[in-house]
Amino acid sequence: MASTPNDEIHAAIAGLQRLADAFGVRRGQLAGVVGVTDHQWAVLEEIATEHFMPSMFARRRQSSAAAVSKTLRQLLDKGLVAAEVSKGDGRQRDYVLTTKGERIMGRLRESRQVAIDDIWAGLDKQELKSFARFSSELADRLERYAERMGS
């Protein structure tokens, strides 16, 4: 029996879902090794950029402001971040990584790089270029579709 374009599309969607699930599991494993959650890791990464704004982070991640506030409290309790009144706007708080937070981020980056080297380094360079182009185009299409649908 010949496969139809629909069969190929559904196989590609299944492969993409499997890949997304595998990435999620691996990120959770990496985060767990240093005692944080995947969401806490994402917040730590954003704070490390020194351009962290909780409301923008929540919007970009389609998370609630309350969820981001809760994560910030957890990171403060763990001693991974510190907060101070913003010099630019006294109504806001600026968040920075503590020394402990910087150590955790260093360990996360090292662990992530080991995984990247083990998984990605041996792949064919031309296939990687093709995959990068294809995945970027697919992401663009998904984002445009979501915008049109009002999500």
Describe the protein in words.
The protein is mainly alpha-helical and 151 residues long. It has one domain (5-120): Winged helix-like DNA-binding domain superfamily/Winged helix DNA-binding domain (Arc Repressor Mutant, subunit A, Orthogonal Bundle). Helices cover 70% and strands 7% of the residues. Strands 1-2 form a two-stranded antiparallel ribbon.
Features of the shown structure:
70% helix; 151 residues; 7% strand; two-stranded antiparallel ribbon; Arc Repressor Mutant, subunit A; 2 strands; 6 helices
Order of helices and strands: HHHHEEHH
Number of strands: 2
Major β-sheet, in short? Answer: 2 strands, antiparallel
* Residues in helices, as a percent range: over 70%
CATH class descriptor name: Mainly Alpha
Corresponding CATH architecture: Orthogonal Bundle
Oligomer: single chain
Average pLDDT taken over every residue: 90
Radius of gyration: 19 Å
Find the CATH superfamily.
Winged helix-like DNA-binding domain superfamily/Winged helix DNA-binding domain
| Distance from first to last alpha carbon | 38 Å
Name the shape in a single word. Answer: globular
Q: According to CATH, what is the topology?
A: Arc Repressor Mutant, subunit A
Low-pLDDT residue intervals, each spanning 5 or more residues? none
Note the beta-strand portion. 5-15%
Structural class assignment: mainly alpha
How many helical elements? Answer: 6
Query: Please, how many domains?
Result: 1
Looking across the biggest beta sheet, what order are the strands in? 1-2
